[in-house]
Design a protein that fits this description.
By secondary structure, the protein is α/β, with parallel strands linked by helices. A 7-stranded mixed beta sheet has the order 2-3-1-4-7-9-8, with helices on both faces. α12 runs parallel beside α14.
């Protein structure tokens, strides 16, 4: 191999999809097949001026000086792979990722973030697909290449947790262009946050932790504060995402000080509230049930006993839940695997330049130093000082980052001298005997002592925020001697420059947050100033006013932007509510409950809290806003499936509304009727639900609230359409759409479009199809997220239109959404649709799905005792259930006829029984597996 190109180059990564399975199925044929695969890749690369850097086996990578040649080579690879005869193994499918950036090369080999990002990009593609980054597309679009096209697939989060990448599919004649959604983080459930800096090193720890998660169900990463436990845990979780059907979820405990609040924080992540007769902890365990998910529980050390108790309960009862926790010490529970996270490796003091550059500690220091000063480099004149610095900081990542932030104003030698002075003070002159914890605190002390009084006070006051804050919030909450409002931005900028505050610029607006170790340090300083309670109160008042202003603004044309702002402040609003409850401040708590009401409308930004503390505040029943607290409690109960409590709370709220002014009274009545509609639908009474929503629309119209009016009208129309009453649905949906178009609120336009399509699907299918397409396009492009209502209705409408390909494509997302709601009958309806779609191709799976769907439909039927029934209690047909409404019932009968013919009556009954005994999570898993298998088969034919 000749000298590799340097500077800005284009990398091409390849990977053979399903190679492990192919080796197992065709051990003899794979040897020859892989040799042909390697020859195809090498030939295409070299004939287009590229160099194969690593190849052989299941994949490799190549480098090109010209973007165009890399793209042409990728097309050549796919065309050759498609035209090749693969008699012994079946078709081999290669996925390809292409990215352009500045190469880092040493010893004629590449390394660094550009290489890593190319590999991450390739990992989201499917076999036979070529994807490239925005950087590559930018160059390619300046000089179009033959008949090659770049299809914009939108922004996607890759598993390096850094900024989203805009991904393009490379298309050309002869290549398959119809692929499933990319396997990016966006395709998995979860809440793993983006990171503002790259993940450096830790290959050994990544491998060890991933292996441990495959061998045991509780893994705890331990180590000193600042050693990088959280960052490692998040990266491991991102890598492990495909292993967990319900995704990976972060539970942050850093800001929790009350041991009794641990369960509340876990529950708040998933919106779980207590079910009747169960504690919140029991309800949480029941919720996890047979779900398969990874819980990353961060910063447990100050809450070991309650965390250990809850984790034991979860792992004992929920076999599909795996826990990855971070703590200064282990949880000390049965089956726990403790992995100590060491500091980054440091080079020997007399190491050569090459060994120094290979050191993880130096690598991290250089990466962060270049962020502070792009010209910074490791040179013969500073290498000794850099080595001394990394060794003196014991390779602790946070300490290295804080030191690196100073390279724009201090040389490495000056940094070492400054640290040496601090260490002498802390360690009594024994400069070589500094413990890691002292090293970290010394670094923070040193950074803190270099701040002005105003900078120090702002850093301390920022500790009151949960999940960071905006500049406006900092100005509102943190002002006061010695800080003036006009100086806050300058002070924030200075703290960011010193790596004491992180600026997150990937949000709607820049947010400022503290790393956890810095936040703990700042919290101590805040307490020393005696300002903790005052700052918490100011913080709570600020976010109550924030909720008041933005919950109204979200109901308009700026919904997407404002909704993002509300979502970003979720943790702060939660902290404000907790403060109100902790201090028994009923007025503050109920004002928050009222002001967040509007954000419930068509958005996934609901604030879900345990109702019991809110309802037990002193004077709550006498407070004028009590009705809004009851509505919040009713909404939570409906979401978690406690239908009787939901209806009871809604009735109480409507009764309490009598003492409110007309506008508020009508608003409470509207929400109460809406909740009753949800309850009726969950029990199978779709036409009854429609009547409740008509009443809700009338009340919201009287309250003078057009967005709620349109939403309720469209919901009523949807319920009527589901029950087969298109005549009642059409005028309501038409009125709703007219209101929505006037308001120009994106999600409301989507919702009313879909509702109108549902009302027209029988009498005007072409218009229904156009409305549905318009709604789906708007949801994906403008709104930027999907809500379960629109997706589920789109599935049902697609089925009514006979568009079975779209029905299958939308069924997966619909089923995932419905898994997290209490509407089992509606989930059953969608499962029935999938059963019909696969009846001809996979009749046994179809029969199992039929049984599972029937059990779900029966679960929504009230028994004589008013409780949920079982499949055995259900009549043969349940005409009031959405799972057995006219269309789905007829479709199910058609499916049954097909299955009787192909399977026979006895075998059909056996398979249906297999489905009936599945619980909801097992049904979801089975249905998604059937969908994925069917779509994969469709691609291969």
């Amino acid at each position: 191999m000749g000298d590799l190109p340097t500077g800005t180059v284009t990398f091409l990564f390849t990977d053979l999809e399903g190679s492990t399975r192919l080796w197992e199925e065709h051990p003899d044929g794979m040897q020859d097949a892989l040799a042909r695969h390697d020859a195809i890749v090498r030939g295409a690369v070299e004939s287009h001026g590229g160099q194969v850097v690593k190849g052989g086996g299941d994949g490799g990578f190549a480098v090109f000086s010209a973007v165009g040649e890399a793209l042409r080579a990728s097309v050549a690879v796919q065309r050759a792979m498609q035209s090749e005869s693969w008699d012994t193994t079946g078709p081999l499918k290669v996925r390809i990722g292409i990215h352009t950036g500045e190469a880092q090369c040493r010893d004629n080999d590449y390394f660094g973030p550009v290489l890593n990002r190319t590999a991450r990009l390739m990992a989201v593609a499917h076999g036979g697909q070529i994807v490239c980054s925005h950087a590559t597309a930018d160059v390619a679009q300046d000089a179009p290449i033959d008949d090659l096209k770049l299809i914009d697939l939108g922004e996607h989060r890759l598993r390096d947790l850094s900024r989203p990448e805009r991904v393009y599919q490379v298309d050309a004649p002869g290549l398959g262009g119809d692929f499933a959604p990319l396997r990016s983080m966006d395709s998995y459930p979860g809440n793993l946050p983006l990171q503002v800096s790259s993940f450096v090193g830790r290959d050994k720890e990544l491998g060890q932790t991933a292996a441990a998660l495959g061998e045991t169900r509780v893994v705890t990463l331990t180590g000193v504060g600042g050693v990088g436990k959280t960052r490692l845990a998040l990266q491991v979780a991102a890598e492990a995402l495909p292993r967990f059907r319900e995704g990976a979820w972060l539970v942050e405990l850093a800001a929790v000080r009350d041991p009794d609040a641990v369960v509340d924080v876990f529950a708040a992540v998933f919106g779980v509230t207590p079910r009747t007769g169960l504690t919140l902890a029991q309800s949480l365990v029941e919720f996890f049930g047979s779900k398969q998910l990874l819980l990353v529980v961060d910063n447990c050390e100050h809450l070991l006993d309650p965390v250990a108790a809850l984790v034991e309960d979860i792992t004992r009862s929920c076999l599909g839940v795996v826990i990855l926790s971070t703590s200064r010490e282990g949880l000390a529970i049965s089956g726990e695997r403790i992995l100590a996270v060491p500091s980054l490796g440091t080079p020997a003091q007399d190491a050569g330049m090459e060994a120094v550059a290979d050191s993880e500690a130096v690598h991290l220091f250089l990466d962060r130093a270049r962020a502070a000063d792009a010209t910074f480099a490791l040179t013969t004149s500073n290498v000794d000082a850099v080595v001394r610095l990394c060794r003196r900081l014991d390779g602790v990542p946070l300490a290295l980052e804080l030191a690196a932030a100073r390279v724009s104003v201090m040389t490495p030698a000056e940094l070492v001298a400054a640290l040496d002075h601090r260490f002498e003070v802390l360690s009594g002159g024994r400069r070589g005997a500094v413990k890691r914890q002292q090293t970290l605190r010394a670094t923070i002390d040193w950074s803190y002592d270099l701040l002005s009084a105003a900078q120090q006070r702002l850093l301390a006051r920022l500790a009151v925020f949960a999940g960071g804050c905006t500049r406006n919030a900092a100005e509102a909450v943190c002002v006061g001697d010695p800080i003036e409002a006009r100086s806050v931005f300058g002070l924030l900028t200075q703290l960011v420059e010193r790596s004491l505050v992180v600026a997150e610029r990937d949000r709607p607006g820049t947010r400022y947050r503290l790393l956890e170790t810095i936040r703990e340090y700042a919290e101590e300083r805040l307490a020393e100033h005696g300002e903790t309670e005052d700052l918490r109160r100011r913080h709570a008042e600020h976010y109550t006013e924030f909720a008041r202003v933005f919950s109204e603004r979200v109901l308009g044309p700026d919904q997407v932007e404002v909704g993002g702002l509300i979502a970003a402040e979720r943790d702060n609003i939660l902290a404000a509510t907790i403060f109100a409850i902790d201090t028994d401040n009923v007025d503050l708590a109920l004002r928050l409950a009222r002001e967040m009401r509007a954000s419930w409308l068509g958005l996934n930004y609901r604030l879900r809290l345990d109702e019991l503390p809110l309802m037990s505040l002193t004077g709550v029943t006498e407070h004028p806003l009590y009705a809004f607290g009851l509505l919040l409690a009713a909404s939570h109960a409906a979401f978690t499936g406690d239908l009787e409590t939901a209806a009871s709370r809604a009735d109480q709220a409507a009764s309490e509304a009598a003492r409110l002014a007309d506008g508020d009274r009508f608003e409470v009545e509207s929400y109460a009727c809406s909740i009753h509609g949800t309850v009726a639908s969950a029990k199978g009474g779709t036409h009854e639900a429609g009547r409740y929503l008509e009443r809700a629309a009338a009340a919201s119209k009287s309250a003078g609230r057009p967005p709620e009016t349109a939403y309720n009208l469209a919901s009523a129309a949807t319920y009527y359409a589901m029950s087969g009453d298109s005549e009642a649905a059409l005028p309501l949906a038409t009125e709703a759409q007219a209101i929505a178009r006037g308001i120009q609120m994106p999600s409301l336009t989507v919702f009313t479009n879909v509702a109108l399509a549902g009302a027209l699907v029988i009498d005007d299918p072409e218009r229904a199809r156009n409305l549905l397409r318009e709604g789906m396009e708007l949801m994906g492009v403008t709104v930027g997220y999907e809500t379960w209502t629109e997706v589920v209705q789109a599935v049902l409408i697609s089925a009514r239109l006979g568009d079975w390909s779209q029905t299958m494509a939308l069924s997966g997302p619909a089923i995932r959404h419905l898994q997290w709601t209490s509407d089992r009958p509606l989930l059953g309806a969608v499962v029935n649709l999938v059963a019909h779609c696969v009846a001809g191709r996979d009749p046994e799976a179809s029969a199992v799905l039929q049984g599972a769907a029937r059990a779900l439909a029966a679960a929504g039927l009230p028994t004589a005792a008013g409780e949920v029934g079982s499949a055995r209690d259900a009549p043969a047909e349940a005409p009031n259930s959405p799972a057995d409404s006219d269309f789905v019932t007829l479709l199910r009968r058609t499916t049954t006829g097909m299955l009787r013919e192909s399977l026979g009556e006895a075998h059909l009954r056996e398979l249906r029984h297999e489905g009936e005994v599945l619980d909801r999570d097992q049904t979801v898993a089975y249905a998604l597996e059937v969908i994925a298998r069917d779509q994969a088969d469709a691609q291969n034919t």
